[in-house]
Amino acid sequence: MPVTEYLERNARLWPNDVALVELNPTVTVPTLTTWKEYDLVQPLKGIPYRQEITWAVFNEKSNRVANFLLARGIKKDDKVAILMMNCLDWLPVYFGILKTGAVAVPLNFRYSSDEIEYCLNLSDSIVLIFGTEFIGRIEEIAPSISKGRLLLYLGPSCPSFAEDMVQQTANYSSTSPDVIVNDSDNAAIYFSSGTTGFPKAILHTHNALLHTAIMEQKHHGTTRSDTFLCIPPLYHTGAKMHWMGSLISGSRAVLLRGTRPEIILKAVSDERCTLVWLLVPWVQDIVDALDSGALKMSDYHLSQWRLMHIGAQPVPPSLVRHWWDYFPGQDFDNNYGLSESLGPGCVHLGVGNNHKLGAIGIPGYEWKLKICDENHKVVPQGEVGELVVKGPGVMVCYYNNPEATAETKDSSGWLYTGDMAMQDEDGFVFLVDRKKDVIISGGENLYPVQIEDFLRTHNAINDVAVIGLPDKRLGEIAAAIIQLKEGFSCTEEEINQFCMKLPRYKRPKKIIFAEVPRNATGKIEKPKLRERYGATRLVAAENELDHVN
Question: What is the CA angle 434-407-339, rounded to 5?
């Protein structure tokens, strides 16, 4: 059955229970007023922005969106794009689209006007629903994208080039539309991160959505008494699919705007959050703030926080161990996945497997994996090869791109991730590096993640990225771009001395002190670094699988 049935169930069984809380401590007055008749908590001047909705209101909002879209001629398999910041209306809009049988197409809020237009055209979206933060970007391209496409605005003071969705949806029924949605129907298109050029459109079915939701609940044991803190953007599979565990269990979730350590800990404390998904930079910032004394554990109510899970990039074991200095006994999970596998969880460490810290883990619920050589043959256990996965969440295809689909997914449904990995004797998989990130120096394969993990143990280093730079003699050398912690200083000589603990061939040959760029989901933007520092790789040819591990 489609995941929309779980929303209907929750509204029926627990209509008055809070489903979603929107929390923005960075503002003290409402920046967006939406569907006032359903707002349960109005923020007061001088009070941080906080609103909440129940499961009944969540479902009613979704039904109004669905009935409005159906009245405007939207039908099964039509594509409806969403361009909104995280807010209380994001998920009701998404579920409203799903209830029509149309395909939801979330867009990255960082897209430029050109990228927005490109993705609308690539996905064949005939509707764009956008929020107030995007008026300027949409206005730039409105003359071209409005031809044959409905532009719907969700916010105050509707611009002249769009229709007021707030006003119109209020006039439509709050009962479920009479549309039959099957598990095999197309449900959503997500886009690859586009860090190496314009993104690909990744098509998924309702069955994949449902399976991923159930898997998330099973992996983290989400119950009705849990509260999930969601910080990353909902346009991305990672945030949304982790939230789906709350949908399955009928539990509460908090949508937090802001990533500063004090904001995160205060939200966990005030909202009594029990499950939190963090990205590596945020974990690093929190432990740095605790180390420096800028934050004190005693100022917060954190005893209920039972699980911290992490993903979106390789996770340094040293960072997790340091986290446990402050949160001893707290459960931990590392989630690996791709947008092509509908988000995190196709491989995961698993709660209770702390003795395998450093591994991405074992196959997730109803997933399979293998590690193959360049000829797609399984390698012996312990050897490095490409990680290949198969399960209910594998994409249908790259929409409108059969060539790229054939390169990534075989006829049996196996998805080639582009990640180099090895499997130990207990079946746990360790990520070695991205296939495209491997540095070949003097005939030796260098895996940047291994070097990065080592460098992160230096007490002055906040973040690090290792890339290959051209070298006449060796072909490539390893260069470390190092971002120091605030208030710390370090010299190239000190880093080189620290790296003497590494085998000679793994030592970075060049040290660069600079900021390490990361995208909205926390991934290091290595193509940007290669371009900046003169790497010879053809950026346009790099694999664009959108990882959310």
Answer: 60
